[in-house]
Each structure stands twice: as C-alpha cells, then as structure tokens.
Design goal:
By secondary structure, the protein is an all-alpha fold. The chain folds into 2 domains: about 1-45; about 50-90, no CATH class. Helix content is about 60%, strand content about 0%. It has helices at about 10-25, 30-40, 55-75, 80-90.
Length: about 90
C-alpha cells in the first residue's frame, strides 16, 4: 500500500533538483523514495551532517569547548618572541 508525503521546499531548490534528476533519468518522487529506503538501510541519515565549517556538530561542539577553555585558562604572550622563547625553553 502506498502512502502520500507532502514536502514543502523552496521553489528554486525544487527546480534545480528536478533538472539534476532529469539528467539522471529519475523523477523527484523516485529520488525521495530512494532516500527514504536508504534511511531504513542505514538506520539513520545516509550521509554525514556537517556544519557550515565542514565539521560534524559534535566535533564542532568539542572544538568550541576547547577554544573556550584555552581563552579562559591558556597562556598569553605579548609578542611572538616571548611565545617562541617559552616553546623552545628546556
């Protein structure tokens, strides 16, 4: 038995996707069904979800935590010479 799904999307996005799918010989409905089947197969989203910085949300959160810690507790230098002396110190 088939079921109907209604999806709202930007008209420009829809037209762009339809042009790409047409070149592949697939209509939008078939592509969406393929996507849904892949969600079932993978038991989740079948591709990596990345932030605008190209990282996974959890990795970006970890990095931000480390940045916050470094800003609060990290060493500060007034110039690069001071920094290099500290790094190269025995």
């Amino acid at each position: 038995m088939n079921s109907t799904i209604q999806v709202r999307t930007n008209a420009t996005t829809k037209k762009s996707v339809q042009k790409i799918l047409q070149k592949l010989g697939i209509d939008l409905s078939t592509a969406i069904n393929m996507y849904l089947v892949q969600i079932v197969v993978h038991k989740g989203i079948p591709f990596s979800l990345l932030t605008e910085n190209g990282m996974t949300p959890s990795y970006e959160k970890k990095i931000q935590k480390e940045i916050d810690w470094a800003l609060k507790h990290g060493k500060r230098y007034t110039n690069t010479k001071e920094m290099f002396n500290d790094i190269l110190r025995d």
